[in-house]
């Protein structure tokens, strides 16, 4: 099971190998292991043990400070590594499960949504309608599992160390009818309730803002405790993928800042949500 520090360590190992001009095959031969094993380490899919990591770092000719950094990441990754997680029983797509793990470790999430309400802020009824019309055909039992997963994810918004969520939501998502007017009215009411939390900031990108930086889709940038690099998640019509390249995550962070700048301020955003909620309730 991947975690943020394990993915960060994998990226470090990959960068060090490339800097040393060592091929994956050469690294595998040096450790007498498969090429696939090296690839899994570098993608953060499998944990490394101390001796194998040390052997690789000697081969790559890294300095003592870098070796210490890598070993610290390995130890921290091992601490958070578990044989099973609470979301394992859910029937999740393989590409989505790692994101849930990262979300559990993150301290802050910056999320831009183009067509729907962010998953962390969805009601059960709204989430159910999303999955009914989603990218895959689910049975009723699978849909209820996914609805329950959305609800469980929201537990991160409360407690002693709550996740900070900064959301920019395109106005389109507030108008699009999922289910019926009752579902939408309750969903927008829930947004207003979430916005009362100190750790949730909601802003709306209005239609009149015109052209913006992310017309192709939604994304999220996750921030972690010290010594762990930011990561991101990009959603697509077919799947989603984790982004751990520092250049790409920095660009997505910049895009989020620009989208936030183009959005209504918090008070204006919530007033628009409140107005649209009232309209949906009148249509019931």
TrEMBL record:
Residues 13-67 form the HTH cro/C1-type domain. Transmembrane segments: none annotated. Gene3D superfamilies: lambda repressor-like DNA-binding domains. GO terms for molecular function: DNA binding. Coiled coil: none annotated. This is Transcriptional regulator with XRE-family HTH domain. It comes from Saccharopolyspora gloriosae. The lineage of its organism: Bacteria, Bacillati, Actinomycetota, Actinomycetes, Pseudonocardiales.
